Description:
The chain has helices spanning 16-22, 38-58, 71-89, 104-115, 133-139, 162-183, 253-256, 264-275, 291-310, 337-346, 366-370, 375-378, 392-411; strands at 4-5, 65-68, 95-99, 119-123, 144-148, 196-200, 219-223, 234-238, 314-316, 327-332, 349-350, 381-385.
Amino acid sequence: MKRIYLDHSATTPVxxxxxxxxxxxxxxxxxxxxxxxxxxxxxxxxxDAAREQVAGFLNCNVDEVVFTxxxxxxxxxxxxxxxAAAKKKGVQKPHIITSxxxxxxxxxTCAEMEREGAEVTxxxxxxxxxxxxxxxxxxxxxxxxxxxxxxxxxxxGSIQPVREIGKIIHKINEARLNEWKKTKxxxxxxxxxxxxxxxxxxxxxxxxNCDVRWNYIDLLSFSGHKIYGPKGVGVLYARTGVPLRAVQxxxxxxxxxxxxxxxxxxxxxxxxxVKALKNKPDEGKDGRWTGTNRKIARLRDMLVKGLEKSLxxxxxxxDRKHATPAHAHFSFVGAEGESxxxxxxxxxxxxxxxxxxxxxxxxxxHVLLAMxxxxxIAHHSIRFTLGKNTTEEEIKKVIRxxxxxxxxxxxxxxxxxx
Length: 418
């Protein structure tokens, strides 16, 4: 039985071309890039090339690219590093602004910072899973140090207005600095605290423009395994001038921002993966996706229409006008999500009930609850996420085999009528 994979938000298969580029660094070119001999320098050259590829993709300087073990570590370094630097500077109660739909790597880290004396504001979202820019602006205080808002939500695919948020923060920083310059020398004022903008862009690079300058971003995280590259490697972009205290010590790698011997094969693979990405500032606006993403959007819409036609009473939680082309998140009222997932897996289709990092939890999705979806409905949800290799035949098969599964489970809930 040929299996169908529709869980690309959890991870993507490694592209064969990327794997081929990585293989030499598991074998003949095995050197440690910190070593000064020929073996080490060959590995270092490969790391440098990958760093240039990432910098080109993000439109940043090469020394602003920090290689990590993945987006989770990058998120932790961004949040913990900025807050630690602010405390060292003398900010008594540094303020963080985030949203209720962030990945646990952000939410749990912010909660930890709160326990350590920081102040955190958790923004609500719209029923379609969008952070409101006016809410960000209203939440900013004198002691605000960091705003961390994800680029794309991994569960429902909602694309957050990161460029607009970045602009707001940039203008506030600029106004504060200009005001300080006017009063400097007249009043004993210290330089105003700059607000830094971080985005967890893990789900964005396949679809959206990640130019950090265009988006007014100070810190950005993403992983290799979401873009058809390897697991265990990621990036934190940290703009020059952003104070970032290392949270992992034991060496002076990555300009003393992240200690640890570099994962050379993974970094090479990540570099190859970003080289294959092509993002434009207007891509995705008003649903006008281009290239492979246009094909993915067409197949996603085919899935949505097919299931809506066959299954009354289902709820599409993904707002297709403001989401990636790959996401289709449904609530199949009357059919428990985990049961549907298992039944589909037995039928050869891999899907998910939400974030892979929260799998195994019996709690309803915090994202759906934040969107105002009732707990009993949230438990009946399935996430489909398509990829560049998804085919029309696969989508047609899902449309064919899923309705009988849902109807079977609904019969086991006689109190519900459809």
